[in-house]
Amino acid sequence: MSLNIACLHAHESNIGYIGGLNVPEGVTWTHYVDPGLIARMAADASFIDEQAKAHVAWQLDWMASAGADAILITCTNYIALLEEERLRIKLPILKIDEPFFAEISRCAGPQMLLFTNPATVEGTSGRLRAYAASQGYAQPQIETAVLPEAFELVMRGDKEASVKLVRQALDRLLDADPARPVSVAQLSMVDAARLTGSARGVTIGHPLRPLEKAVQALARAHGYEE
Q1: Using one digit for the tens of pLDDT, what is the confidence trace for 92-102?
Q2: Which residues on adjacent β-strands are paired with residue 54?
Q3: What is the CATH number of the domain that holds 116?
Q4: Same domain, 48 and 59
Q5: pLDDT above 70 (res 226)
Q6: Are 151 and 185 within one domain?
Q7: Spatial distance between the Cα atoms of 49 and 86, rounded to a whole number of angstroms
Q8: pTM for the complete prediction?
């Protein structure tokens, strides 16, 4: 027997990050990639949020009925559209940003959060504030910066150039205020965060590290030890 976690991604580049997590033996991944919903929301003004929410509920129900034991959503746009009361099949649902939000919320003082996708800034920031309030944390003191040209490179498949741009942006932020914690908001930025953090001897926050701990906890709850 295995613990099958079905993953919903908006871009195939996220598969490698999730597959590389340090999880107990017996945890398996099934990956579903659907960039079409986000693309349609951007291109079709007649496609309203209600339709998008219905699509997300249908997609998760379909994944659950295909044999999943739990679901992981790696796209923050999908997370923002999820209304769990719409779902017919109830499974544990991991949202990639919630363990990350917990890490950010535990940090006092001003912080910088770097994005590449402008469409995720408002939704992620709103969810962070709501999460902190629901868990009894003080509201995080977050400043945001956006690097849309790096996101465009990711979508074109030029990961190397994107990593270079993000690293340059991280260096500028660290140089401007070395004492201020810096995090990156999206999985496509994790490699740049790791490389820059290693080169400068600092810790740059990213969603993957707290997610790994959350998956390990889920596995232990189902009887799988590390």
Answers
A1: 999 999 999 99
A2: none
A3: 3.40.50
A4: yes
A5: no
A6: yes
A7: 14
A8: 0.87
